[in-house]
Design goal:
13 helices; globular; 2 domains; mainly alpha; 78% helix; single chain
Length: 241
Amino acid sequence: MGCGDCQLSYSQLSSTAPGPPPTVHLLQSPSNDRLAVAPRLGYACYLVSLFQRLLQFVLTLGPWGLPFLGLMDSSSIPFPPELLLIPLTMQNPRAVLGYSLLATAGSAGGSLILFGLARRLGGPWVEKKMSRRKFKRLHGWLEAHPVLAVLVPAAMPPPIPTKLFVLAAGAFEMSWGHFLLAMSMGRFLRFFVEAVLIARFGPQALLYMRHHVWVPALLFALALLYVGWRTHLNRVVMAEG
């Protein structure tokens, strides 16, 4: 339902004309009080309109809107940088590296805000944001592999709940340097791979990734195994030499 529909419904609900409008059946309160529902619709329309104007403003910033979207998406408002990354990459595929760096800078900065908040408020506050079982599981992952526990979800596209890992990392007092390194590496991998896929196959590549999250997760896991294997071989060669 767009904002125009919201405005129409609001005026209809506020009128005294007999008979309910078509939208009332879905939104009316149990007491059938149309006037009680109208302010809620007006507030919802205001938020939709506000988000639309904000997004239109960001789109006018060009590439510099990428860090702005990344900051909002990682800290509070879910405005993924892909909203701007897609059209920019389609217009200038050769600039995928620069676009990825700009989006990474904003996303890492927004995550630092959330991370710092979790460090300040501590574990009890973070535990309220998730189940106790999930909280303990994240604790175990962060103790065993602190960098990978942040890097891997940061590199995955939505709907992976990255904010939960950010909050847990802050609650368990992961170092600022390690967190920033892991988040920056993960976000850069995500945005760079997405930009390359957009430039090569078009926006439909992202739709495929969103509906088949296991594909990038598997590729990323294989890449990590390859890096680990090469590192192990280099250590063996150095030890024998």
